[in-house]
Design brief:
mainly alpha
Length: 183
Amino acid sequence: MEDVKEELEQSDAQFYQLLMELEQSHAQLSQMQTEFEESELLRKQMQVELEQMKSHLEHTQRELAQTKSALHQTQGELDRYRYREAIASQNISQREKEYKHLVWDAWYAYRNGDINQMVNCLQKSLKFTSLSRTKTVSNWVKSWSEFSSEKGERFKFRHLNSYQEWQQLLRRMTVVKSSSVKK
């Protein structure tokens, strides 16, 4: 009986030990649950902050693009003003000055991808030149090469030839010249 009592006391001691370990594990589990919930809350807060930062960054990028566009436009206006100022000081006729202005404006439009404006300026320039049509086109290309070079760029005539509007302009110039020769 003494053995049974001793075994029973030993079982009770083991039971209490297991019970204490279980309570300790339960306390650790509760602490881990609390830490997990805090981490999850922190993760959600960080996600919100990240979305706000992303939105702010996108807004800043849009503003930067607008500023860059405005700066580009202002630089173009400044370049145009400087070119016109340089032409004004030359001892040439008003017609020739107007021709040069239109050729520069056409180059600037071409450079900025506004092909319709380019063609419009070149057509207008024809009214102010006494050069033959062939020499006029040659002068356009030479002038544009010079303008591009001044900007540290290389004018690519082949790229210009790829535009249908440019080709149509050249055809119209040929037709106009042919019609005037027949008269």
